[in-house]
Task: structure prediction
Amino acid sequence: MSRIFNIFNKLDEADQTAFIPFITAGDGGLDNCEALVFTLAESGADIIELGMPFSDPMADGPVIAKSHERAVADGIDLNDVFGIVERFREHNQTTGIVLMGYTNPIEVYGYKDFAIRADEAGVDGILVVDMPPEEASELKKELDKLNIDLIFLVAPTTTDERLEHISKIASGYIYYVSLKGVTGAGNLDIDSVNYHLERMRNYIQLPVGVGFGIKDAQTAKQVGENADAVIVGSALVSIVEELSSDRDKMVTKVGNMAKEISSAIT
Result:
């Protein structure tokens, strides 16, 4: 079983909701990013999603898109991302790490080499936002060999038929995009989130994490009542953008927000 499976299994036994924060790898500098990963783990993160910097992050809203731009401008590539994970794994073997990004850099790296390097670094899951399940079989084959989970997005507009298809290929957890559009947009409709969670569970047995629009402990608590995981990205990335020139303040503020959210959903 994967580390992600074990994390959710343990939380389920304790009747707890997982906290999954997102930051873009290398945003604000490699050293700062590494400090943030450790801080998030120490502040209650069960799984950390690390964005793989890409020059055209079309599914992301302005906040996260700019974080990709900053990281790309600093020359951050997949090898740097793997290095962050590798150094984290020297000290932490319990927190899950998921790499989240786009198809192009993975194709350029090569599916087999990418999977091998991810395994060597200590990556637990991969989420490719622009790879539909119909086109994921080759990557999945390589990841399955190494027990790395392939995670998929589900949206409010995802049909029941497509949910059935995703259920046959996904592993780890499902990332439910609670709003139409790009990351960081709009306001949450909790009733709608709960309706779609119930609908998804008719077809998908995996844990479901809810992301997009969760900006503070209050909204996290509301979502966490029914979701298996709460995913927070833009609110944390905004802090990195605001305070990247002051590492201590940035790390402290990110840690404090992570602790507030983690405490709210426990």
Observations:
- The chain is about 50% helix and 15% strand.
- The longest strand covers residues 18-24.
- The first helix runs from residue 3 to 13.
- Confidence is low (pLDDT under 50) at residues 181-185.
